[in-house]
Hints:
CATH architecture: 3-Layer(aba) Sandwich
Helix content: 25-40%
Structural class: alpha/beta
Low-confidence stretches: none
Strand order of the largest sheet: 2-1-3-4-8
Radius of gyration: 16 Å
Amino acid sequence: MRFAGKYISILGDSVSTLWGYTEPNEHAFYTFRNKEKSHVYYPEDTWWGQVIDALSARLLVNHSVSGSKVIRHPACEIESYGCSDARTSALSRDGIVPDVILVYLGTNDWGGAARVYPKAGEENDLAVFSVAYREMLRKLRENYPEAEIICITPSVCRWSIYPEYEFPYTYSGRHISEYCEAIAAVGGEEYGCRVIDLVKDSEPYDTFDGWHPNAEGMQTLAKKILRGLK
């Protein structure tokens, strides 16, 4: 297996957090209270823990911040946005650099209705999703030139305890596919990264609150990502 023994780092949002295992710890979503609700207690219960285990790889750093977006937002109290210098340089440890970087961001940009493509004269506006995604990948490539970067799009989900729940493909006027297409264009076409489109793989993951995966949902996410890697 080509990933066996390799160091994997993760750049993500709340779906990729776990109290005590991800950095920065104080910005984890899966705290004790949400662990109880979701039954996601340990790395082996998370999507990333299951993916790393299935690949026979090793976790280096999981830098995931609850609520974080790719775009730079003026309301951010810390440099939580994915295109920041702080986050794009936080994926190594003790002189070890990642062999693989899994970027699972974009969900909160969609949820916040971030504009996807720039207008004339806005090519450097980091409040625009595609511009910020490009800047994020540029910095990751500069900081970790030998790493393989894999870009993961947002996904569809379900809420099994509320069967009437319908996934909102269009949120705040923006369709989720717009962000998937932008990730494919910037990550795949411009930077040559592998892109795993979790919307095209239409199997929804289960949630405990309408968005964040429960233990079963984490298993589904892991399977979808592993299918994309194959």
